[in-house]
Amino acid sequence: MRAITYSQYGSPDTLTLTDVADPRVGPGEVLIRVRSASVNPVDWKVAAGYLDGLMQVDFPAIPGWDVAGVVEAVGLDTPEYAVGDEVIAYARKDWVQHGTFAELVAAPVRTVARKPASLDWNQAAGLPLAGLTAYQLLKRLGTREGDTVLVHAAAGGVGILAVQIATALGARVIGTASEGNHEFLRGYGAEPVSYAAGLAERVRVLAPDGVDVVADFVGGVLETTLAVLADGGRHGSVTDPSVEPAGGISAWVRPDSADLQALADLADEGRLTVPVAEVFALEDAAKAFELSQGGHVRGKIAIEVSR
């Protein structure tokens, strides 16, 4: 099969389109014919070696954890799915080697859910990691109807999903973003505020008594978070462990098929969609990494593997 691989840590230039053996399908796994994958910042951070102390990488490695595709085969004792099922997965395993930037990927069923019919393949591929990151943090923070939620980096790939999920949970959402993204955020039901100097004061104008929940998807905003948090409020970050000594939650997304199915159901109920910023062919994965590294993408970056 065709796959993107890298044989050493480095820049996006290390990514190469290669022919590799088809993956084996173990018990409790499904083999997915990949229609689309998506790029997350963690993908190029792993490939650059930034997470070497945290994650085992076996070379040559295929990057990517997000996938949308069709079940090609099932492993032993895998009654949940059948050949031909359309699925999505946050196909993270215990080590990095056989990722989703390939024509085929084997995924444990604990990482898989059924593809939302309302999303196209590129949108569906952008849902798993980003959607689970947002959903799991908001749920851990006890987000509920009537809460006022501040989402830091609300126009990013995770933030825009957090805006929609919090709204679906019945919350009022304030989202930080550059001025150019304010109309974009309003389209998803958020009240936008500029993240420039004076952010805390602007949030306090919208929520004079403070916000109930702060979800941080950018890092480096703890001081602002604490300045706008209401008494008894809850806060957490997916990028900044320093929130823990300040009473917050430091979260790392987990594969969870039930959570992923809940997101797919929200999409099919018309309460969640995935904005796709740009779509690249498999052979252009390096360009997709470079775009992600720029840090100013509005929505998700997709890698279209097959049509």
TrEMBL record:
Gene3D superfamilies: Medium-chain alcohol dehydrogenases, catalytic domain (3.90.180.10), NAD(P)-binding Rossmann-like Domain (3.40.50.720)
An example Gene Ontology molecular-function term: oxidoreductase activity
InterPro entries given in the database record: ADH-like_N, ER, GroES-like_sf, NAD(P)-bd_dom_sf, YIM1/Zinc_Alcohol_DH_Fams
Domain Enoyl reductase (ER) intervals: 10-303
Matches recorded under SMART domains: PKS_ER
Signal peptide segment: none
Pfam family, any one: ADH_zinc_N_2
Protein's name according to its UniProt entry: Alcohol dehydrogenase
Species this protein is from: Knoellia aerolata DSM 18566
Species classification: Bacteria, Bacillati, Actinomycetota, Actinomycetes, Micrococcales
